[in-house]
Design brief:
This protein has 442 residues and is α+β, with helices and mostly antiparallel strands. 30% of the residues lie in helices and 28% in strands. The protein has 2 domains: 238 residues, BirA Bifunctional Protein, domain 2 (2-Layer Sandwich); 95 residues, Rossmann fold (3-Layer(aba) Sandwich). It has a 7-stranded mixed β-sheet with strand order 3-9-10-16-13-12-11. It has a 5-stranded mixed β-sheet with strand order 20-19-21-22-23, with helices on both faces. A 3-stranded antiparallel β-sheet has the order 5-4-6, with no helix packed on it. The protein is globular and about 75 Å long. It binds glycyl-adenosine-5'-phosphate. Glycyl-adenosine-5'-phosphate binds next to strand 10, strand 13, strand 16 and helix 8.
Length: 442
Amino acid sequence: MENLMDKIVSLTKRRGFVFLSSEIYGGFSSCYDYGPLGVEMKNNIKKLWWDEMTKMHDNIVGLDASILMSPKIWEASGHLTAGFADELVECKKCHHRFRKDFLEKNKCPDCNGELTEPRKFNLMMKTFIGPVEDEKNIAYLRAETCQGIYVNFKNVMNSMRLKIPFGIAQIGKSFRNEITPKDFIYRTREFEQMEMQWFCRPEEADKFFDYWKNERINWYLNLGIKKENLRARETPKEELAHYARKAFDIEYNFPFGWKEIEGVHNRGDWDLSNHSKHSGENLNYFDEKEKKYFYPYIIETSVGVERSLFAFLCDSYEEIIGGRTKTTEAKKEKEIVLKLDKKLAPIKVAVFPLVKNNEKIIQKSKEVYKMLKTDFVCFYDENDSIGRRYRRQDECGTPFDITIDFESLEKDDVTVRDRDTMNQERIGISKLKPFLEEKLKK
Ligand code: GAP
């Protein structure tokens, strides 16, 4: 679709999904705020991922480690050395800076000026612990959540009496001082990761790698991402991250091209062996059968909450030129529908009184809203024509709109409109909750 990126940016602001951070001060450093609908949708994504990992799979437990950790962790992990750095070049004329690997030519893409020689630029975000800002007090905001999992490997395994293979899942904020954050919420300096680390025997690593790659692709397909917009790409050896033996990117066909939304990595014993060496605490595993110690291999699945949200929004955006709402006042220009999977939709049900000037209809509508709002994310709207209200909710991806009309006063029922088919059916108010529960489960 032409200009899909601009359309998504505009819709997400208009409908309260994503706002530019510090907007009244001109924005700040590619940071974004998630509005009322954005936060609901992010929470839905996180809950679906968490349940998928911890409920739908055996032997996966959760963790919530701190963002600030000992700087020694980042030495051991390789993040403070050249391993976690991008090559930065600067234009000698306009002084704009770029990641070298993002450039197609050896000239500045903004002014065609000459570029400096590349230099390494570490991506870790620094801060200070305590009042004295000197070398000794430097700390880092974590660049990936998984390091908190590795250093807690023994704590989790022993407290939960786990035997390999097992997994540890975590959701939390990560920070990277990206040289060129870009493409709206695709690449930012602050983002949230959902990471699962699967600890297994080295000889089983390839088998589990394939297993997790397929599981993760299916997660997106089951949540409605179109097959033709998703692909898995093996990372060429020269592009592998410093910790990875093998990696697959799950890529989505964004308006700006095929880009990674999730990485599946075979990290081998890089993390457990390095943390053992640096900390002096042996993070190995005792094989009771063979009576020997070894470092389990780690298969990692890692996805950004915002990147997946962005992919879900792009994939579900539809425009109907000429309009599809058959109300007389509709201008029949263009209607927008977000055909989000019901489980992802931020608002599940909207409640509308047909008219604003009838006390009884308003009262009944408020009763219905009150009855539903503790079970479903619900939105009450009595402003503008019913057609406009439908269209507003279609843009938000709301699966069901409920209208209370004159007949409702006599029959104690409502009409329920389906976002995708626009079919309307009358449902008795006493049956409304189970009806919606059933529909939203699918
Ligand atoms: N623990 C492994 C790891 O962090 P990664 O490929 O660097 O691997 C994993 O990142 C995922 O985190 C990416 O696929 C992406 O979804 C998300 N991510 C990474 N950097 C990001 C950024 N600057 N902005 C938004 N999301 C990011």
